[in-house]
Amino acid sequence: xxxxxxxxxxxxxxxxxxxxxxxxxxxxxxxxxxxxxxxxxxxxxxxxxxxxxxxxxxxxxxxxxxxxxxxxxxxxxxxxxxxxxxxxxxxxxxxxxxxxxxxxxxxxxxxxxxxxxxxxxxxxxxxxxxxxxxxxxxxxxxxxxxxxxxxxxxxxxxxxxxxxxxxxxxxxxxxxxxxxxxxxxxxxxxxxxxxxxxxxxxxxxxxxxxxxxxxxxxxxxxxxxxxxxxxxxxxxxxxxxxxxxxxxxxx
Length: 251
Known about the structure:
The chain has helices at residues 35-43, 60-63, 68-85, 96-107, 126-137, 165-180, 203-211, 234-249, and strands spanning 12-14, 19-24, 47-50, 88-94, 114-117, 142-144, 162-164, 189-194, 216-221. It is α/β, with parallel strands linked by helices. It has a single domain, classed as Alpha/Beta hydrolase fold, catalytic domain (Rossmann fold, 3-Layer(aba) Sandwich), CATH 3.40.50. The chain starts with 11 loop residues before the first strand and ends with a helix.
């Protein structure tokens, strides 16, 4: 496995107050998509960790050696390490990072608050899963990229140029468990979702809002596609996230 990280895709860490925020990127993406938001949180005084999930930010071949168990274990480990340095920790996630945010909350009921950005929390339709199985059985390893779904001209996500299918299957298997436990989440929750998203359907956010049992605020983003953290609504994403975290932490 290569250890060469693509330029700009490195993890980000910042020391600040005793209030911590774990920031999680999406599937086939890397910290580049979340770095502006992570830096805004750090500039607001929070202690921030934005890890590079296993197999991400290097090569597709690297990613094909990893699966949900690696990504979820990395998210858990990052939360637990941050909790040793902070009094309370919140979690923010985009796309698969949103699914991992739910996973962390389901395993750590002490989480202070949760921010889901175009989060994947629902299993796919049966026909999609069946088609994926057929492709894998036929020996197909990758399909076209799902990355860089951004409305703003000139902005690009540094995601992989292909989607590894075995990894997608593992992701969906992991989301099955996340979905089955959503009602266990009672932490204050902010959901940010784009009206037009070509990667994750909006019913993920709507059903998430209906299923978690803690206080929920759902904000629609009107001028962004999937990677809203790099899109036209990025300032709104940052402002809503900071306002929410200030409320959660009593800042």
